[in-house]
Amino acid sequence: MTTSKAGNASQRRGAAPAVLVLEDGRSFRGRAYGAVGETFGEAVFNTGMTGYQETLTDPSYHRQVVVMTAPHIGNTGVNDEDDESRRIWVAGYVVRDPARMPSNWRSRRTLDEELERQGVVGISGVDTRALTRHLRERGAMRVGIFSGESVADEAALLARVREAPQMTGADLAAEVATEEPYVVPAIGTKRFTVAAVDLGIKGMTPHRMAERGIEVHVLPATATAEELYATAPDGVFLSNGPGDPATADLSLVQEVLARRTPLFGICFGNQILGRALGFGTYKLGYGHRGINQPVQDRATGKVEITAHNHGFAVDAPLDAVSETPYGRAEVSHVCLNDGVVEGLRLLDRPAFSVQYHPEAAAGPHDAAYLFDRFVQLMEGQRA
Fold it and tell me: How many whole angstroms separate alpha carbon 212 and alpha carbon 372?
């Protein structure tokens, strides 16, 4: 069978053999997809049917090898508009059936070509359903992908996988955050100024705030309270990001809470707020990743279909108000699949957070109201 010159790069170069090796010894063989070579990371699975470009460029996936549960990946190619950050962050990529030829009016190149251009090692032709079931049963674990000349005796490859660093204890936010502050201007009339701490922020997040008249000052993960308050913020935002929240410095969040500045956190920011309030965090068995996760807002009873990407969660009581150093706090949202804490709310100070992604590129948009709730907090504080 012949392939058009527009077909994916792995087909044009003959699809080098590849093998995926999990730290528990199970392996899957397939073909190279993207760059040829080797890579290591934590094996996780994403249940999204769409949005692979946003997933790849989400900094929260730093040092993770993403397994796509949807079988057909790459159908719409890669465009120049949908990236969530400056580069692809996943450590490796696993798909079952890559598109032979993309078909979309915005497509500029194939997914395979983009992975190769950015040096991302992947594998295709893998039974991703079997791999996902294995990860659900055994939990997220270290993995290596080897292709081309990197393929060797599996015992030797397994030994190398087991030498790779664990995600538990990993301090990664500063590795993906901006090094210099920058400003995203308000769209239309400026109403508020927000200082956003970049722990791995996605580009759509400040855009969602800008749509609501907010000028967003995006600051490095290492920003001090002095640097943050130099922006004269009406509110503070804590972004998503990779790594273990137990490694995070809580002093900045504690200062914001002490000053009663309106605070909104998502994902990693939710975990940091939880720890600042005195709650613990723990690693989930296999995490929540995808755009189809059901979450209930406990204040309204409404169920939202939401976008997730987290492997850690806050350990807080679901059915009791907790006393914290900053007043009373309660769990505001809960995952209906497994009862995981999906949001926190302070009752005596203007602060709340959610574990999921209300900016939701590429969707769904059920949780967009949370940005409006943040605006209401700032309005209330100003009044």
Answer: 8
pLDDT digits over 297-339, tens only? 999 999 999 999 999 999 999 999 999 999 999 999 999 999 9
CA 359, 92, 179, 257 torsion-angle sign? positive
Decide the pairing of beta strands 141-147 and 97-98: unpaired
Q: Where are the beta strands (DSSP E) in the chain?
A: 17-22, 27-34, 38-46, 64-68, 72-73, 92-94, 97-98, 121-124, 141-147, 182-184, 192-197, 214-219, 235-238, 263-266, 280-297, 303-315, 322-324, 327-335, 341-346, 351-354
**pTM score:** 0.93
Catalytic sites, residue numbers: 267, 357, 359
Separation of alpha carbons 219 and 71, rounded Å: 38
> Which is nearest to 192 in space by CA: 262, 118, 281?
262
The pLDDT tens digits of the residues spanning 75-100 come to: 999 999 999 999 999 999 999 999 98
Closest CA to 51 of 202, 187, 174: 202
Q: Give me the amino acid identity at 176.
A: V
> What span, in angstroms and rounded, lies between the C-alpha atoms of 98 and 77?
10
Residue whose C-alpha is closest to residue 128's, from 143, 114, 107, 147: 143
Gap between the Cα atoms of 52 and 83, Å rounded: 10
| CA-based radius of gyration for the chain | 21
Grouping H, G, I as helix, E, B as strand and the rest as coil, residue 255 is: helix
Q: Rounded to whole angstroms, how far apart are CA atoms 375 and 358?
A: 14
Nearest by Cα to 167 from 291, 341, 44, 6 = 44
How many residues does this entry show for the chain? Answer: 383
